[in-house]
Amino acid sequence: MASYKKKGYKKVKVQGGHTDDSFVAKSFESVEDLTVKSEKFLERHQNKIFTGIFIIALLVAGYYFYHQKVVIPKRAEAANALYPAQSLFEQAVDATDEAQQKQLFEQALKGTGGKYGLLDVIDEYGGTPSGNLAHYYAGLAYYHLGQFDKAVSELSKFKSDDEVLHPMALGVIGDSFLQLNQPEDALEYYEKAVKASDNEFTAPMYLFKAGKVALDLYQSKKDDKYLKKARKYLERIDKDYPKSVYAKDAKIYLAQAQYGKQ
Description:
Oligomer: single chain
CATH architecture of the domain at 79-259: Alpha Horseshoe
Order of helices and strands: HHHHHHHHHH
Largest sheet: none
Radius of gyration: 33 Å
Helix content: over 70%
């Protein structure tokens, strides 16, 4: 490596016509010192550095291989396993005969004809998108079967950013708590459902349910905080969603909330 020689540098003029030899010299010496130290560091640690780079390369390649050969096929397999149970669930929703509907919901949960049910998909493919979606369908199936504790359990495990499915899951948890005679918990989840999305379908529905439950809580507990909530939620329907199917009934309950009585 070429070394720096003081007498070879060019003098720099500064204000007043003087030259600052020491400043330029020290600058070059600092650069040279840093370069030498860097080279020595690389010499001392080159094996560790190359090993680290090799390990990172292996991790990247391993992740790519795992994603392509394991994750993607697993997700496809999970989606195929979910499809029959999902179809049974949809048939149950459309069924008009109560006994048939119950049977179809149970088959959707447990499977039939050698096909996976929703609970099997959850157990086998819980870490996949289809396994996650199976929690949603299982929660709704349990709700329709009147097993509200299980509905709360399954829907609480469902994770989604979807602007409809997310508030729907929270809302059905609220419905389940209402069926379990836990109105305070129901109100909490209706409020969460409202916050989860402001779309035209779910927002007015859960604003209405929240307002109605809050009014019922006020009438039973005579706590003004519930009356304030009832007014707030019912007024928002009238203001933000005047064309929703809940707007007319919201005005009726709002009139009760305005006077704090039935």
